Automatic annotation (TrEMBL):
The gene is oppF_2. Keywords: ATP-binding, Nucleotide-binding, Plasmid, Transport. It is found in: Cell inner membrane. Gene3D superfamilies: P-loop containing nucleotide triphosphate hydrolases. This is Oligopeptide transport ATP-binding protein OppF. SMART domains: AAA.
Length: 316
């Protein structure tokens, strides 16, 4: 990998499913991800945001090699992920999932859970490595003999992070890693991830609904809607001057910690996002307060606008 090669590159990714909307209904095509291209430089963090069902988790599953796209390529450190041996891939890129209660086997001790990747891939000095990992994520070594049910939610997520890091990956994919935690614990996990990124030189993708978390953690942000990337920019530029109406609506909907402010104004219209709806124009048009007739007549293409890439012909 040269200095100019991004650590993560996704090019023109498309992924569809055939689903039924009812028991006796015919199958319909659902486009989970379409025309998605992303690049993440080594040592940087990309925030991937959007509502539930926008394609974020499908995108990161393809990035991890857990799903095969219908079209497009994924490269990690300059290597095509679909031709990479699994043993090489898991040493290069690792996930941290949303719910540590589901990702940690409740009948296994922490020592076994954290050390399992090393056992599977021929590691040595496993006990010492487990102790080092627990120390790295801020857990006392005495917890090595505990079971997941004896730990708090924040401690369990630290265990999941330790397990992901024990093989020494260069890329960490975090899929909503703080959403199941209390707010105070969320801050601890975010600070831990920031510390690990700096200490280990990690490249990260951070998937979240929480824009306040993304603002604190990410260097760049990509916003998705119904499978498409609709805006991408450096974090400061996006939060200060978002170009797409959907991005502005998401930012306006962020809850503030001051109870006197009240609930934010709802700017997403009365319609819900429908992934099955066939449309020629902008996918966001049915909910957009700024739509015009031209928005529904033809496909919207990503274009450069100031410091952003934006999929909206009316953005200025």
């Amino acid at each position: 990998m040269t200095a100019a090669t991004p650590m993560i590159r996704m090019t023109d990714i498309r992924k569809t499913y055939r689903l039924r909307r009812g028991m006796f209904a015919p199958t319909e095509e659902l486009v989970a991800v379409n025309d998605l291209s992303l690049e993440v430089a080594e040592g940087e963090t990309l925030g991937l945001v959007g509502e539930s069902g926008c394609g974020k988790s499908t995108a990161v599953s393809i990035m991890l090699g857990l799903l095969q796209p219908d079209r497009g390529e994924v490269e990690i450190a300059g290597q095509k992920i679909d031709t990479m041996p699994v043993a090489d891939r898991v040493r290069l890129i690792q996930p941290v999932f949303q719910n540590p209660n589901a990702s940690l086997n409740p009948v296994k001790r922490i020592q076994t859970l954290v050390g399992q990747p090393l056992r599977l891939h021929g590691g040595t000095n496993i006990d010492a490595e487990v102790k080092r990992m627990l120390d790295l994520v801020g857990l006392p070594s005495r917890l090595a003999d505990a079971y997941p049910g004896e730990l708090s939610g924040g401690q369990r997520q630290r265990v999941a992070i330790a397990r992901a890091l024990i093989l020494g990956p260069r890329v960490l994919i975090c899929d909503e890693p703080t959403s199941a935690l209390d707010v105070s614990v969320q801050a601890q996990i975010i600070n831990l991830l920031l510390s690990l990124k700096k200490e280990l030189g990690l490249t990260m993708v951070f998937v979240s609904h929480n824009l306040a978390v993304v603002e604190h953690l990410a260097d760049h942000v990509a916003v998705m809607y119904l499978g498409q990337k609709i805006e991408e920019a450096a974090t400061d530029a996006l939060f200060e001057d978002a170009s797409h109406p959907y991005t502005r609506a998401l930012l306006a909907a962020t809850l503030l910690p001051d109870p006197k402010v009240g609930l934010p104004e709802h700017k997403l219209g009365a319609a819900a996002a429908d992934p099955f709806a066939a449309r020629q124009g902008c996918h966001f048009a049915p909910r957009c307060p700024e739509r015009r007739q031209s928005c529904t007549e033809g496909p919207q293409k990503l274009r450069k606008l100031r410091e952003s890439l934006v999929r909206c012909e009316r953005a200025v």
